[in-house]
């Protein structure tokens, strides 16, 4: 098929992105967002030239798309935008234009629900899209695809996506970056400075991109069923054990951001997590015992000990007084009173003194412990 013969109308944006050799991932984390996560799903059409290039190998085509989407997600992740491919379809023909692609889409039946339909066109230097077409029947775009130029493919894809969201080449938003970037602050290639902020500001205008319901415990959106697993997009998709986003943004120490696999297998996690809670509970008990219960018990021990000791001394005095009442002349020598005769154990009344005798070792241990503590705390 040949490109459309009629000129582009005002709703179309055709762009050719020059490859400037940039390979570093720009930092868009300084863009101001509303803090809500948004999921944009794509249905991707592959033209005949691309399928021939990969020798009709579906696995190789899927792998190429994973690389493309992984790169694009590196940029959109800090903007709280998650991108996902929910289906891949072959498109017969080459050099297809936007009108041809629109007609192809209308002919398709039972398509999976999605937000944007995109055609990857082999060796096409640039892209074309309906401006502000998202959330309408014009939510389509064509993006050039060079199998060996991953970064340039990503830039072209992002540029057309920005057009579909509604971004124009006129600067409307203001932005500020911590580090001076010589006119590149939050700049999307092919647009003016602050274009990234402008694109983010337009998201709230599109009802079909209403914020999803994230799992607040993991801050991860739930992907649509059957989506192509793309490690690093923050969506735990099929074949993935976890997905904490791009490696530089991953804050889950249990998840390998490169492989989207748990660092430890689930069988180990099932035992480690309860064990971790048990250790934490034990530490809490130790802290409470040291600073709350132990001083209270120690004070109670000292109280019992002092009461027991006082009562024992009282019983000894009473016993000695009884001995003093005995007739010394008539009493045997062995019954003569002394000034310090302890009360026999069989005649002792059982009160606090028994508690004191029982707790005497504990009391002595506590007194020794306190003396050692005071000695170690004494200044040198």
From TrEMBL:
Return the annotated region ranges for Disordered: 1-25
Q: Which InterPro entries match?
A: Disintegrin_dom_sf (IPR036436), MetalloPept_cat_dom_sf (IPR024079), Peptidase_M12B (IPR001590)
Q: Name one Pfam family in it.
A: Reprolysin
Q: Which GO terms describe its biological process?
A: membrane protein ectodomain proteolysis
Which residue intervals define the domain Peptidase M12B in the entry? Answer: 38-206
Q: Does the keyword Lyase apply?
A: no
Q: What UniProt keywords are attached to this protein's entry?
A: Membrane, Metal-binding, Transmembrane, Transmembrane helix, Zinc
Q: Where are the transmembrane segments?
A: 268-293
What are the binding positions for Zn(2+) in this chain? 159, 163, 169
Q: Which PROSITE patterns match?
A: ADAM_MEPRO
Molecular function GO terms recorded:
metal ion binding; metalloendopeptidase activity
Name of the featured protein? Peptidase M12B domain-containing protein
């Amino acid at each position: 098929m040949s490109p459309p013969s009629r000129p582009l109308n005002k709703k179309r944006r055709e762009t050719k992105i020059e490859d400037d050799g940039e390979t570093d991932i720009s930092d868009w984390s300084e863009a101001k967002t509303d803090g809500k996560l948004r999921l944009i799903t794509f249905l991707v059409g592959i033209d005949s030239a691309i399928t021939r290039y990969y020798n009709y190998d579906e696995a190789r085509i899927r792998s190429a798309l994973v690389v493309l989407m992984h790169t694009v997600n590196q940029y959109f992740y800090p903007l709280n935008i998650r991108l996902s491919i929910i289906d891949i379809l072959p498109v017969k023909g080459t050099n297809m234009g936007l009108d041809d692609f629109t007609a192809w889409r209308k002919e398709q039946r039972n398509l999976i629900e999605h937000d944007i339909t995109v055609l990857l066109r082999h060796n096409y230097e640039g892209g074309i899209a309906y401006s502000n077409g998202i959330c309408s029947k014009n939510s389509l775009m064509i993006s050039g695809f060079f199998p060996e130029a991953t970064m340039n493919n990503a830039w072209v894809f992002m540029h057309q996506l920005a057009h579909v969201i509604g971004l124009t080449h006129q600067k409307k938003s203001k932005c500020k970056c911590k580090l001076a970037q010589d006119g590149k602050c939050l700049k999307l290639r092919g647009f003016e400075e602050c274009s990234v902020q402008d694109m983010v500001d337009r998201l709230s205008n599109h009802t079909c991109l209403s914020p999803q319901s994230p799992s607040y415990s993991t801050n991860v959106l739930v992907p649509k069923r059957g989506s192509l697993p793309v490690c690093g997009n923050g969506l735990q998709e099929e074949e993935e054990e976890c997905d904490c986003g791009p490696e530089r943004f991953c804050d889950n120490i249990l998840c390998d951001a490169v492989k989207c696999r748990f660092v430890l297998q689930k069988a180990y996690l099932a035992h480690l997590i309860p064990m971790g809670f048990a250790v934490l509970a034990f530490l809490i008990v130790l802290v409470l015992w040291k600073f709350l219960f132990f001083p209270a018990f120690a004070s109670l021990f000292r109280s019992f000990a002092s009461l027991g000791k006082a009562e024992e001394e009282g019983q000894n005095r009473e016993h000695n007084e009884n001995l003093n009442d005995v007739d010394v002349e008539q009493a045997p020598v062995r019954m003569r009173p002394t000034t310090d005769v302890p009360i026999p154990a069989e005649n002792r009344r059982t009160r606090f003194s028994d508690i004191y005798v029982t707790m005497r070792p504990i009391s002595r241990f506590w007194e020794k412990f306190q003396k050692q503590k005071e000695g170690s705390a004494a200044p040198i």
